[in-house]
Amino acid sequence: MSQRFDIAVIGCGVVGLAILRRFAMAGLKCVALEKGADILSGASKGNSALLHTGFDAPPKSIELQCMQAGYFEYLDIRQKLNLPLLETSAVVIAWNDDELVKLPDIREKALANGVTDAKLISQTELRMREPQLAKSALGAVLVPGEHVIDPWSAPLAYAHQAIAHGAEIMRGAEVTKATKQEGEWHLATPKGEVTARTVINAAGLFADHVEALIHEPDFEIKPRKGQFVVFDKPASKLLRSIVLPVPTERTKGVVLFRTIFGNLAIGPTAEETDERENPINDTATLERLKATAIAMLPALKHVDVTAIYAGLRPATANSDYIIRAHKAENWITVAGIRSTGLTGSLGIAQQVVKLYAKHFGKLPKKLPAAIWTPVPNLAEHAIRPYMKGGEILCHCEWVTRAEVAAAADGPLPATDIGGLKRRTRATMGRCQGFYCAAYVTSAFDKARYGTP
Amino acid sequence: MEHHSVIIIGAGPAGLSTALALCQSGAKDVVVLERETQAGGIPRHCGHKGFAPYKNFGLMTGPNLASLLREQTTGLDIRTSTTVLEFTLRGSLRVHSTQGITEISADKIVLAAGTRETSRAARLIGGNKLKGVMNTGELQQRVYLGGEHPFRRPVIVGSEWVSYSTLLTCRHLHAKPVMLLAEDGENAAPSYFSFGARLLGTKVVRGAKLIAIRGNSAVEAIEIERFGKQQTVECDAVVLTGKFRSEDALYSNGYLERNGYAPAVTDGFKTSKPNVYAVGNVLGHLETAGLCMAQGRELAKVLFP
User: Fold this and answer.
1) Which residues in chain B are contacts of A232 at CB distance < 8 A?
2) CATH number at residue A107
3) How far apart are CA B115 and CA A68, in angstroms?
4) Distance in Å, alpha carbon of B274 to nearest chain A alpha carbon
5) Residue A58 has what DSSP assignment?
6) CB-CB under 8 Å, A398 with B96
7) Which residues of B touch A225 (CB under 8 A)?
8) Which of A145, A31, A22, A20 is nearest to A77 (CA)?
9) Can you tell me whether residue B162 is helix, strand or coil?
């Protein structure tokens, strides 16, 4: 017996989950199908976790439109979902005279993109704001609206809210075949067949493969890898703002930024790659990133590296997002959602639902009452669970046994250690598991299976 | 605010010996704060022999030493599952227990927070993020406290004493290490140990660098570079041993002045803050438990002459 839905979303990255949430909250019967063992196991696993204003996005692009709609929706809903916001601002810094002359254009572009509070600041103002920066910083464009958010709690909250509105999430459910019979899609997965009237392809790094299930795709995913180095917590005291470079023709360059978990990180690189899963770090690049960070912020020399990671952006040859309805096929393609997907996701969801209403079906007239599903806060600057007591298992990140147990429970439990880390921060601190990994995994297994 | 005459942070060999010696010489109101559920420190999970608490005492296993220490300190005020979160600006401690967070002050504070190995991330080792990459600390806890068998053919990276103790842990597991990768380090153990490693059937490779760890979901191989040439070695786990460094969580924010990767001290134990002392492996170099205990007894004489 196959299960029938109005909407099937393929892919449980931040984009797929935001889309699922919006359809579910509109009152449609939805399912999301994820190939990985857990949600967020592809492109959404590793990014820089910034909430962008779109000040430097291509003007008049769909990307800019989605980012700005997403930005405002995030600010609007975040308190109801207990999602954090670290208000940092960003500075686009000129490190030499060639870059200095480009700053006015960067500000003009920001104004044209509707980011009206972007302004030029002098070397003196920059030094007052960021006294630890290397003295070679000559001036900057200040963008007050750029902030830092939690890259995993946000999509997890979207997933929980979708589930509360009746949506289903199937993990380990790679779509291997899509056939259309009597106006309905039949999607074959290892977890059984799913039937849906409309399919949304939000398969991220595999969007072209999924598209090929129904027709010759008119785009190809060209993954772009980004490597990151994360410094220990004292580093976050050295910087207030997100530090962006002046972009070149070739690349947006690496960013120095505080993380929501109280660290400081540098990245991403932009490397063309054939990898679509398990992106690899390489020592030479990590050493170069570390040196770049120290050159910008000399006091980092005395701070240890806490973590390293690599992420993949599902880029295409197209310079914009691809969000397109295939009318005859009852299919919506969402692809090429590059580095700005975390910010753009809620805006993309708005677009997709609009496309659906225009081409494929009416939305229920009466919206069901919204159910809010707040997630536990993991942000360092806000109230965290350990503050109320309980047994701490992970001593670097102060994660309690109750949090580990909660992550293994509920409507969307973590299925592996990666999922546990993203839900709790356990073992992600400076010792990287030296002290606690054995205890954390045994507590996690105990919560999942009853016995350690 | 709760106040004591001495607070010792950490109930490993150094912290417990300091507490014991203080109480034996008549000091009152000494409190030990330990974040783990049990006192004893790192030796609790070093299941092999090689621990000598006193001169001419003979060798015992880590867990035996830990329980000897617990026995000797029975009756002292040792609070387990109690984490010191940070030094406050006024010099007191923000302390977490199962009940919540409180602030505690003391006339004298002893930092005996111990040591940890340098992680994969801090070593900037490339490759995939995979199950099966661990430090000795995690391995020993899995094996001696959790009864796990985490691998069959690991590569052990390091040439310090602890690297050879990892070989003993492997023997206990009936696992056959494929290689001991001896990167040239300053704490290299005497070369007769590598002879011992060969006797146990493990190939010792010197002067090589671990470049990357590869696999799909778990470790399948490593890539090493030796004399400018790259080579792939198949294995099912990587144990990163040694490169011990001071557990700096409580002072890395600059609260105590540093000397390299350890708190700067004068006269053996005095830190840059007049009422804060440091003892044992938190001082940076990996010493034996016996030496840490001797240091604790020395410090007690300084604190309570």
Assistant:
1) 252
2) 3.30.9.10
3) 47
4) 23
5) P
6) yes
7) none
8) A22
9) helix
Q: Do B45 and B145 form a contact (C-beta atoms < 8 A)? A: yes
In-domain check, residue A391:
yes
Question: What class is the B2-116+245-303 domain?
Answer: alpha beta
Radius of gyration of chain B (CA): 20
Minimal Cα distance from B255: which residue of A?
Answer: A234
Is there a contact between A282 and B254 if contact means CB atoms under 8 Å apart?
Answer: no
Residue A62 lies in a domain: no
Please state which CATH number belongs to domain B119-242.
Answer: 3.50.50.60
In the prediction, which pLDDT does A25 show? 97
A1 pLDDT exceeds 60? no
| 8 A C-beta contact, residue B11 and residue B34 | yes
Tally A–B CB contacts below 8 A: 112
**B44 touching A (Cβ < 8 Å):** no
Domain that holds residue A205: 3-47+152-220+318-359
| The pLDDT of residue B186 is above 60 | no
B97 touches chain A (CB under 8 A): yes
Q: In total, how many domains does chain A have?
A: 3
Q: How far is C-alpha A7 from the geometric centre of its chain's CA atoms?
A: 23
* pLDDT interval class at B46 (50, 70, 90): confident
Q: Residue with structure tokens 């999924």?
A: A210
Hey, what's the torsion of the CAs at B119, B122, B128, B134, to 10 degrees?
A: 0
* B250-268: pLDDT as tens digits: 999 999 999 988 999 998 8
The domain that holds A11 is classified in CATH as 3.50.50.60
In DSSP notation, A402-439 reads HHHHHHTSSSS---SHHHHHHHH-TT-STTTTTTTHHH
CB neighbours of residue A216 within 10 Å: 6
Mutation test of the interface with chain B: which of A273, A275, A432, A440, choosing the one with the most B Cβ atoms within 10 A? A432
- pLDDT tens for A159-199 read 999 999 999 999 999 999 999 999 999 999 999 999 999 99
B258-280: average pLDDT: 94
